[in-house]
């Protein structure tokens, strides 16, 4: 917890950071060249460090100066900000487009990355006051603590409520749209991903050299390309299926499918619970029905995963009326899944890219 003064104001975070690094005051003094007595005074608020000392301490703990000074939001304050804004989206009197979008994005983030309920389900359906209980606080921390810790969010100074919401919104939206592929779990997949950029470069270089009759360069490019293809061929031939955990692979694949479907169909806060039941059933099929998983993998380039699931259920004489409604609604919105995901792949990459506009203050 953050230390507070008698007046209730948040003090600096020197003591908090020192303890989180398992250091005594004497050890911190030795590491930073600041006297033991001075550190004690700083931690108790009896004396304020000079800016040079703040900078030295911030550099040592790898945080910003405003953060160590206690001028940024605490984790508890972050929880309250995100909680209040999320439930503003469920307030018929005060909801507006930004809070509504934020609530929907949070719901998708929770559903894509966990098997948990959405925040609204933590309360009774007829409940109108959404107080932060210990259970609710633990829930938010479980799902968002890693996001609160991102430096460009952690370093936002107080009295920048909108900035906190915008930054968190950018991150969860980006993460929702860039799920890890199951290939990341296998050595072969990692090898291919690492080599793919080179493969693309060699391929384009070869084509260009031949196109412009630069034959001497073309020979070099072709040989480099051929060497790389041989490496890939050898990796495929030598790949052992027992070198990875198939259940983990299926779980990652299921999460990837979830991410694509939640982001493609964009269920609103009003129908996400119903939509999630369909997705949960689909995920269960991936994990337990090899025939269905094989069909998904074979047909994923022809139609989206929900359509494949619908056709599979129809083939087994199961009711698909609700799924049909979602598919028809998507067609009515005239969304092209291929264009949608091409745009996503170019836009979202890492948390740092999401938050380029949020420079340290």
UniProtKB/TrEMBL annotation:
GO molecular function, one term: DNA binding
Pfam family, one: HTH_3
Keyword Zinc-finger: no
Gene3D superfamilies, alphabetized: lambda repressor-like DNA-binding domains (1.10.260.40)
Keywords from the named record: DNA-binding
HTH cro/C1-type domain boundaries: 14-68
Coiled-coil segments on the chain, per record: none
InterPro entries: Cro/C1-type_HTH (IPR001387), Lambda_DNA-bd_dom_sf (IPR010982)
Name by which UniProt lists this protein: DNA-binding transcriptional regulator, XRE-family HTH domain
Lineage: Bacteria, Bacillati, Bacillota, Bacilli, Lactobacillales
